[in-house]
Amino acid sequence: MNxxxxxxxxxxxxxxxxxxxLSAQAAFGATPGEPVPTDPQVVTETPAAAEDAAPERSTAxxxxxxxxxxxxxxxxxxxxxxxxxxxxxxxxxxxGTDAPEDAEEAPAPEIxxxxxxxxxxxxxxxxxxxxxxxDSATAMRSVAVTFEGPVGWxxxxxxxxxxxxxxxxxxxxTFQVRIPEKRPGFELRVFTAEATYKxxxxxxxxxxxxxxxTAAPLDNLATAFNNVGITSESATTAGAFDNEGNxxxxxxxxxxxxGKGAELDVLGATLQMPSVDPGTRDNVAxxxxxxxxxxxxxxxxxxxxxxxTAATGTVTVYYSDGTVGTGSIGFPNWxxxxxxxxxxxxxxxxxxxxxxxxxxxxxYQYRMFAHSxxxxxxxxxxxVVLPGNSSMHIFAMGIAP
Length: 401
Fold this sequence. Notes:
Layout: H1 2-28, H2 40-44, H3 47-105, E1 111-115, E2 124-134, E3 140-148, E4 155-159, E5 161-165, E6 170-179, E7 188-199, E8 205-213, E9 230-231, E10 248-249, H4 250-255, E11 263-266, E12 269-272, E13 284-285, E14 290-295, E15 299-306, E16 311-319, E17 324-331, E18 345-355, E19 358-374, E20 381-385, E21 392-400
Parallel strand pairs: 9-10
Antiparallel strand pairs: 1-2, 2-6, 3-5, 3-7, 4-6, 7-8, 11-12, 13-21, 14-20, 15-19, 15-21, 16-17, 16-20, 18-19
């Protein structure tokens, strides 16, 4: 009885052990009949496991490569898109920049002042109107006008507070000026008006001036000739270019292409040498003479020379619209002075000069020069006032187109 029970227990134990072994082999991937490993890490290092893992790593690598290629493609496309975006932005910026430039080129609105004509026949009381024109697109407010005459002249206000001026309209202020008795000679009387305001073109103020001559300008430069600067070598005593009775030699000037009536191309202008005989008045010793010179151009050109090293001064240009411009000129001394002194340009150079005793000083050069003053574009010159410096001798002048 006990023996049967023992046998049955042994058989049951054997069956149980076999079942457990088969389960373990299945769990660890071992083939039946092979030893069952006890370390799971060894299983992961078997060739079969490596072969199974290789496709997974290859797939991951392929996925990584694909991702990199995709990223590279995106990066390759990105610069093109960025460049296109930058070009588009640049085009927009260029387009945006053009608009302000176009706006700058458009003429800005201005406030214009006009001073009425003024008679200098005195003694008298003259009434002067100053008209303020609003050429802007905005109304002017608090418009006030002031007016001044030459130094010492009395001015009385009739109406100077204009209030508001609508766009495209004008208002007039009125003043009275005491005109003194005329004096002989040529003088210029300058009158100035100023308007202050709010609104309008936003500038806040505008000015204008009118210059009125006390006498008519001389018709041309020849009518102003007051000095003998050229003589013949056979008759030198009339010369008076400098304070010692010296003068240019007519013969030497002719040999240099600057004889009587010769035309010279100077600084863009065609100037004519004096068409007078040697020993007669042929130049202007500048003393503020007013000379009519009519025309328009780029500059007013002078031909002359200095009888000292300080032959400089200011030329005043009067335009037909009543406005005034100024410019400085100067001529080097006719000898012993740098040819470009005072900004001048050498035109004619001759050997020697005529002295009261006859021709001499042939070892030295005696010269004429050119200088110019700029002119306002689009304006017509009516006359000019020469400098007040008698050491400046002017032989010719003209306008360079």
